[in-house]
Amino acid sequence: MSIHETTTIAISIHAVSKYYELVKALDEVTLTVPKGTILGLVGPNGAGKTTLMKILAGIFKPDLGSVRLFGKDLFFDYFETRKMIGYLPEKIILYPTLTGFEFLKFVSGLYNIDEQTFKERLAKYVSRMKIEPYINTFLGTMSKGMLQKVVLTGIFIREPMIYLLDEPFYGLDPEGIWILRQLLREKANEGATVIVSSHILPLVEELCDRIAIIYKGKIHAEGTVKEISNWVGESKTLEEIFLKITGNNR
To answer: What's the pTM value of the predicted model, to 2 decimals?
Structure first.
């Protein structure tokens, strides 16, 4: 019996295709992600990772196919499904004159988090992410890594059911990476579902329960590293598997 038959499906992607004029960015992508799973989405530049993440976040609509979150259509039930999602884009654009606290307060208001809950979660996640000294600093003066931590804190404060994180480790120092990994594992253990898109394959291999390798707009392999390795053959590490599937091995 497969993992998908014994657990609740958090994300169901069926035959999703997306075009940019004459370019087919996604080609009938089908993928299911069980509740409580951390899935690593990996692929070379231009493979379709960010397009797929933006579709899952409800930013882009697919030209063909469907996406369901816990059985609800992502776009038909948009306002309900959107509340489930915490999305970190690859490129962060924020108001530079807001302080870290003002940004987090804005996020809490946007998602109707009551004042007491906001205070409790603010204290918890600001401490966990170690951003206390920078909470009153303007976003426009923060380093890339600190800005990343503040935005991630905003997502954790919401405590969504689904985390969609596009290159979340970019700009983080080793301690920041370790903290983020611990938090994501805790969230998955609590029942949240996480998709991490990253080029840092050793981190993906250590963190994620399952891997999906996307190449030229198609999912070419999905499963645990061991399952994919057995399917590919002699490859053992995720890096070796990735290079073999994408044809970049030397």
So the answer is: 0.92
